[in-house]
Amino acid sequence: MTEETITEILPPIRHWPALDLTGVDFDPVLTELMREGPITRIQLPDGEGWAWLVTRYEDVRTVADDPRFSREAVLERPVTRLAPHFAPARGSVGFLDPPDHTRLRGSVAAAFSAKGVERMREKSRRMLDELVDELLQDGPPADLSAAVLTPFPVAVICEVLGVPAADRHGMHTWTRLILTSPHGARAGEKARAEMGAYFSDLIALREGGTGEDVTSLLGAAVGRGEVTLEQAVGLAVLLQIGGEAVTDNSGQLFYILLTRPDLAERLRREPEIRPRAIDELLRYIPHRNAVGLSRIALEDVGIRGVRIRAGDAIYVSYLSANRDPDVFPYPETIDFSRSPNPHASFGFGPHSCPGGLLARLESELLVDALLDRVPGLKLAVPPKEVPFKKGTLIRGPEALPVTW
Questions:
Q1: CA–CA dist 155, 163 (Å, integer)
Q2: Number of H helices, E strands in the chain
Q3: DSSP assignment of 206-231, as one string?
Q4: Mean pLDDT of the region 123-127
Q5: Which of 115, 163, 234, 257 has its CA 20 to 30 A from that of 28?
Q6: 118 CB-near residues (< 8 Å, 6+ apart)
Q7: Tens digit of pLDDT for each residue in 195-237?
Q8: Which of helix, strand or coil describes residue 78?
Q9: Distance CA 143, CA 47 (A)
Q10: Which residues contact 346 (CB under 8 A, 6 or more apart)?
């Protein structure tokens, strides 16, 4: 970022609709915005006004990590946004700034640390093996999404949060309502309120406890007066929803491997390259529609010769950062030998995904289990007949029909 040669000429405002994209097609509007410049102006389908958009890797990283761009300030003004679901909620971790944000995330850091995630490896592997056993026992054809890719991440995130197995289905139903717009804003708000009430009861029940799961850690933090119950509930809801995003990412990952059997066969022949390949697939997958949550400039800031004025809204695009040719040569190519691969799939800065290590572990386990235990796995329908979700914030297949 630089203050040199600031221009006062504003770029045109581009309307960015919420597109229902299939497969792993990259958003054509975002492609145009990337071509138009490193910083442009956009108007999204919901909310009010316009916002800046930065698309280059270094700018995305800097804005995400710069305290001059505030999430909390979004509460004080109307902002253009992708969907009604993204209306700011006071006390939500997504709209907190440090030090409150740092303290809240710190209360559950142990559960998502390298040690905490590694502690989940064997239990996660056992849960996955049970699902694959059932898949093989029932025989082909099957919906890989319904049989494995959905129940596995739901089970893992519920285990991490301390949600009893009997309540997993309800959690999944609430999450789908929150993330999918065809049900309407009211259905999403109702589901969020019901999930929040559930976590409020669970966290209060575990206040003063010593467990290692997230709700126990939050209950302990509330008991010590370090965070409010409202903040704790907001974080639990966010983690539950984010944890289920692995379902959609995994669906896209396996859609790629099943439509590119050469890639799957290479991973079967060379299991040692799987960790690097997963990083490359995470970089390549267009995991969401449009953009996430905005920030507000607290003072005038120069980016690429453009003045972002105090009070302006600004978005970053992690999708475009992952396709920046200055960081990722030939970004449209899936290259399992790409190294280094500093992809932005889990974000940057204080609001980066706290469950990134957990999501990566789940991807590793899924690739190992399905490639090794179901060697003949293939699509049961032509690629164009795979149904993809519509009206959802996170992209992924509705079903993944397979046979073997």
A1: 9
A2: 16, 11
A3: TTT---SSHHHHHHHHHHTTSS-HHH
A4: 98
A5: 257
A6: none
A7: 999 999 999 999 877 889 999 999 999 999 999 999 999 999 9
A8: coil
A9: 37
A10: 352, 353, 356, 359
DSSP 8-state class, residue 147:
I
CA distances for 323 relative to 46, 116, 267, 283, 374, angstroms: 26, 31, 23, 8, 32
CA 367 to chain centre: 19
Residue pair 280/322 in contact by the 8 Å Cβ criterion: no
Which long-range CB contacts under 8 A does 348-352 form with residues at least 24 apart? 348/60, 348/61, 348/64, 348/65, 349/61, 349/64, 349/65, 349/66, 350/65, 350/97, 350/98, 350/101, 350/102, 350/105, 351/64, 351/71, 351/94, 351/101, 351/293, 352/64
Provide CB contacts within 8 A for 100, sequence distance 6+. 231
CA-nearest of 311, 309, 331 to 320 is 331
Q: Please name which of 150, 108, 103, 143 lies closest in space to residue 127, comparing C-alpha atoms.
A: 150
Residue 206 neighbours by CB distance under 10 Å: 21
DSSP 72: G
Q: Which residue type, as a one-letter code, is found at position 321?
A: A
Low-confidence winner among 127-141, 174-188, 360-374 (lowest mean pLDDT): 174-188
Residue 3 has pLDDT above 50, yes or no: no
Architecture of the CATH domain 13-403: Orthogonal Bundle (1.10)
Confidence check: pLDDT of 296 > 90:
yes
Query: What residues contact 134, with CB distance under 8 A and at least 6 apart?
Result: 147
* Dist CA 319 CA 290 (whole Å): 9
User: What share of the chain has pLDDT > 90, as a percent?
Assistant: 86
Rounded CA-CA distance 364/16 in Å is: 34
What is the token pair recorded at 164?
């009893």
Rounded to the nearest angstrom, the gap between the alpha carbon of residue 162 and the centroid of all alpha carbons in its chain is 21
Q: Tell me, what's the pLDDT at 369?
A: 98
The tokens for 309 are 């004025």
Q: Which amino acid is at 313?
A: A
For 125, the token pair is: 């592997």
Alpha-carbon dihedral 269, 270, 274, 280, rounded to 10 degrees: -90
Cβ atoms of 206 and 216 closer than 8 Å: yes
- In contact, 319 and 286? CB cutoff 8 Å: yes
